[in-house]
C-alpha cells in the first residue's frame, strides 16, 4: 500500500474510531457489561495488528542488524558508532528528563487540581520494581537468543546481533555466503512488513473506538488542563530535538519529519512506538541513512532513547507530589532525575513501563503511590504522545549518527 494512501486510511480509521466509540458510549451509558463487551471486541483488531508487528520485529531486527554490522568490517567501527550513538542517547535522555522537571515546576499542573485525591493507602494496581544494576545486566544479556526473540527483548537481540555480526565480519570472505542469505531474509521481512501494514487502519480504528468507549470523551474535559500542559511540554521537546538535529544534519532534517508522518501517526493512534518500527526503518533508509547505520542505531534507541517516556516520568512524579502538597527540594529533584536516568533504561519490553518506573520512584521519595490513580484513566491518551515522541527522537538520533559517520546520502 502506498505511503500517502495508508496515511489517509489511518486518519480515516482514527476519525471513525472516535465517532463509533462516542456513539456507543452515548448509547450504552453506564452499562459496564456492554462497554466491556464492546471494548473487548474492538481491541481484537488492535491486538491482531500488534501481534503481527511483534511477529516480524525480532527477525527483522536481527537480520538487518547482523548484516549491517557485518558490512561495517571490523569491531573498531562498531565501537566507534556505538559510542557516538550512546553519547547522543545520554544527552537526549538528560534533556528529556530535565525539560519534564522544568516544565512541571513552571506549569504546576498538580496545584489546585480540583479533583478528589485517592486515599493514601489505595492500591494503584501497578507493581513498583526499582531496577538494580544486577537486574539491568541480567535483563540485557540473553541466556538464549531464541528466548530473546520469542519475548521480543530488543536489547538482548541487539547484543546477540553485535556479537554475531562482528564474528561474521572477522571471518571475511568465508562468511560472505551467510551474509548474503541473511540479507535476503532481511528483504523478505521488509516485504512481510508491507503486508502487515495493510491492517494498520483497522488497528487504529479499533484502538481509538475502544479507548473512547471505555473512558468517554468527558475525561478529556476533566483532565484537559493537565493533558494540554503535558502536550505543550512534549511540543517543546520536539522543537529542541529537531533544532539540534537541523544544526547537525542541516535543513533537510525537516524533510525527514515529513517522511515519518506515517509511522508517527501509527505510533500515536496505537500508543505503541514498537508498531512504528518497521516503517520508521524503511523511511530512514529512503531518507538516505545507510542500512548499516539505521539497522544498528534504531533498535538500540528502543532500549536507550525513549525520550517521550522519560520526560513523562519526571512530569508525572512531580505532578503527583504537587497534588498531595509535597514540596521537594532542588537536591531531591536532581536526585530523582539521576535515578530516572538509570531506571528508565530498563523500560523497554516492560508492560506499562512508564507507570512501573514512576511507581518505583514515588516510593523512594515517600510520595503516595495512590497518586497513580489520578493518571490511570488518561494514561492511554498520554501514552499516544509519549510513543510518537519516541519515534521522533529515534529518527533524529539515527540521522545524526549517520551524518557524523558520513553515511547520510544526498537525494
Structure description:
The chain is mostly helical and 411 residues long. 77% of the residues lie in helices and 0% in strands. It has helices at 3-28, 32-72, 75-107, 133-140, 145-150, 154-171, 176-196, 200-215, 218-222, 224-249, 253-259, 261-270, 277-287, 291-304, 307-323, 330-343, 353-364, 373-376, 379-404. α1 packs parallel to α8 (200-215) and α2 (32-72) packs parallel to α6 (154-171). The protein is globular, with a radius of gyration of 21 Å.
* β-sheet strand percentage: under 5%
Helix content: over 70%
Low-confidence stretches: none
What are the secondary-structure elements, in order, as H or E? HHHHHHHHHHHHHHHHHHH
Number of strands: 0
Distance between the termini: 23 Å
**Could you tell me the mean pLDDT?**
84
Count of helical stretches: 19
Q: How does the major sheet shape up?
A: none
- Structure classification: mainly alpha
Rg, please? 21 Å
Tell me, what's the shape?
A: globular
Keywords:
mainly alpha, 19 helices, 411 residues, globular
Task: Compose a concise summary of this entry.
The protein is mostly helical and 411 residues long. It has helices at 3-28, 32-72, 75-107, 133-140, 145-150, 154-171, 176-196, 200-215, 218-222, 224-249, 253-259, 261-270, 277-287, 291-304, 307-323, 330-343, 353-364, 373-376, 379-404.
Amino acid at each position: 500500500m502506498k505511503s500517502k494512501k495508508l496515511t489517509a486510511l489511518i486518519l480515516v480509521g482514527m476519525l471513525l474510531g472516535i465517532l463509533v466509540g462516542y456513539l456507543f458510549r452515548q448509547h450504552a451509558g453506564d452499562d459496564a457489561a456492554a462497554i466491556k463487551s464492546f471494548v473487548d471486541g474492538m481491541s481484537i483488531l488492535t491486538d491482531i495488528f500488534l501481534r503481527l508487528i511483534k511477529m516480524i520485529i525480532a527477525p527483522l531486527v536481527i537480520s538487518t542488524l547482523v548484516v549491517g554490522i557485518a558490512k561495517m568490517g571490523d569491531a573498531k567501527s562498531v565501537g566507534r558508532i556505538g559510542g557516538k550513538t550512546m553519547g547522543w542517547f545520554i544527552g537526549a535522555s538528560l534533556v528529556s528528563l530535565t525539560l519534564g522537571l522544568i516544565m512541571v515546576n513552571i506549569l504546576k499542573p498538580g496545584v489546585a487540581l480540583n479533583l478528589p485525591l485517592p486515599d493514601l493507602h489505595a492500591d494503584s494496581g501497578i507493581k513498583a520494581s526499582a531496577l538494580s544494576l544486577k537486574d539491568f545486566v541480567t535483563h540485557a544479556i540473553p541466556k538464549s537468543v531464541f528466548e530473546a526473540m520469542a519475548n521480543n527483548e530488543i536489547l538482548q537481540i541487539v547484543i546477540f546481533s553485535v556479537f554475531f555480526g562482528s564474528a561474521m565480519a572477522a571471518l571475511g570472505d568465508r562468511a560472505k555466503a551467510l551474509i548474503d542469505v541473511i540479507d535476503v531474509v532481511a528483504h523478505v521481512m521488509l516485504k512481510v512488513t508491507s503486508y502487515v501494514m495493510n491492517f494498520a487502519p483497522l488497528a487504529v480504528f479499533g484502538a481509538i473506538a475502544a479507548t473512547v468507549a471505555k473512558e468517554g470523551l468527558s475525561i478529556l474535559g476533566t483532565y484537559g488542563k493537565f493533558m494540554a500542559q503535558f502536550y505543550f511540554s512534549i511540543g517543546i521537546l520536539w522543537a529542541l530535538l529537531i533544532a539540534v538535529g537541523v544544526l547537525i544534519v542541516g535543513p533537510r532534517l525537516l524533510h525527514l519529519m515529513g517522511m515519518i508522518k506515517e509511522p508517527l501517526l501509527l505510533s500515536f493512534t496505537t500508543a505503541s512506538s514498537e508498531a512504528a518500527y518497521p516503517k520508521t526503518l524503511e523511511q530512514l533508509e529512503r531518507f538516505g541513512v545507510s542500512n548499516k547505520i539505521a539497522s544498528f542505531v534504531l533498535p538500540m534507541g528502543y532500549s536507550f532513547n525513549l525520550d517521550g517516556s522519560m520526560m513523562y516520568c519526571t512530569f508525572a512524579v512531580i505532578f503527583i507530589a504537587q497534588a498531595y502538597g509535597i514540596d521537594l527540594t532542588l537536591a531531591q529533584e536532581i536526585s530523582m532525575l539521576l535515578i530516572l536516568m538509570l531506571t528508565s533504561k530498563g523500560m523497554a519490553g516492560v508492560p506499562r513501563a512508564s507507570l512501573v518506573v514512576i511507581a518505583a520512584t514515588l516510593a523512594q521519595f515517600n510520595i503516595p503511590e495512590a497518586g497513580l490513580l489520578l493518571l490511570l484513566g488518561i494514561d492511554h491518551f498520554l501514552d499516544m504522545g509519549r510513543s510518537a515522541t519516541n519515534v521522533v527522537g529515534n529518527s533524529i538520533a539515527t540521522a545524526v549518527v549517520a551524518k557524523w559517520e558520513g553515511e547520510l546520502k544526498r537525494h
